[in-house]
Every structure is written in C-alpha cells, then in structure tokens.
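Sample 1 of the test manifest.
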Amino acid sequence: MAGLVGLASGSMLGAAAARWPDLDQSFLVGRSACASCGRTLGPGELVPVWSWLRQRGRCRHCGASIGWLPLVAELAGGGVAVLAFATLDPASAALATLLGWWLLLLALIDAEHGRLPDVLTLPLTGLGVVVAVAAPVPGLVDPLASALGALFGFLLFVAVARLYRAWRGRDGLGHGDAKLLAALGAWLGLGGLAPAILTAAILALGFALASGRHRADDALAFGPWLALAGFVLFCWQLFVGAG
Ligand SMILES: [Zn+2]
C-alpha cells in the first residue's frame, strides 16, 4: 500500500521537477502533457511505471523520448515509502517518508535543471531543527546537534567549494549543495555529516565508474547522491534509535 502511494507520489514529484520552477496547479489537479508535442496524456499513460514500460519511455503520439527521469522518480518515490514503512514504526516511517520525498524532489530538480532551489533547501533545514526540538519520534538527534549540523554542513561545503575553485580555477560545487548539506546536518546532526558526505561520494563515484562518465571535466551532480545518502542514513538513525 505504502509502495503504491509512493509510486504515485514519485510520479507527481517527477512532473513537478520537470516543470520547475514554472509550477502551476496543473501538475496536481490537471492533466500532464507531452513536453515535445503537447498532447494531453490519457489515463492509460499516467499509470506509474507500467505506462513508461509499455511505451518504452516514449510519447505514444510523437515518439519523443520521455527519458529515464519519470521512471526513476516513480520507483524512487515508491522505494522511499517501502523502505520507511518496512523498517520503522508508522509515525517514524511517516516522518522519514516526508523527508525522503522532499529530498527526492530536490534530487530530481538537480538532475534535470542542475540546481537545488533555496525555496526547498532552506525550509527543509528549518524543518529539521524544528523536528529535533519537537522530537515527535524516538531516535532523532538533539536540537543542539541539529543546529550545529546545519551550520557546519553549510560552512564545510562552502569551504570545499572555495578550495575546489582555487585548485581548478572554476566552480565545481554550487552553493545549492552547501544548503542541501545544511539541511542534512539539521536532520542527521553534526555527527551525521561525515557519513552522509562519504556515502554520497561513494555512490557518486560508483555511478560515474559504472556509467563511464568519469572525466574530471564533467559537471559534478552531487545533489542526488547527497539526497539518497541523507534519506538512508536518516532511516538508519531512526531504526537504531527505536531498537
Ligand atoms: Zn509527444
């Protein structure tokens, strides 16, 4: 059940990410349309995963490629909910799913547009601190660790970005990444920063090697890997805290 809701949520998050930042109401209440030919998609083309597979990732009318992102969005949206509800109590799972879907939206926007909007990262940071203060479920970091995590997450990434610029003579890591790391620091605490960065780096490196995209000049899309690492580590933190 959580998985099905997750698939549908992932589908909506994918649609929102594709249109970002020109969001209107249509991705929630209206009908999606092909970005290439503009044809409105029928109900049969909006079934998560199944539609993508049946159409082999193409528009049924004009044959334009839809790309992998809608499928990845749907599977990740479902995966977030399944992982959370399979391993955690319902209240903890709901909180973890909220974080997971928020991070998924950020990851999709970063993958599609190469940026991490402040309007999503800054509230997520604030929410992390608020959650740490309110402590609605066991296993959360204490408020001080959360606030320090947000502060040092931001400063750490700014410092790394400065070093990178001095070394390579150009920007490799954006300030959006710094704010995402601040958000993860708020949710995972100061002690969660190093594991998050390390996990994200291993995932990014593994993907780069597996996909053959390991030229140093390629832009570093670190946001999606940070988001994935942050979600998994948060689930782990709640799982250990509850046990
Ligand atoms: Zn089309």
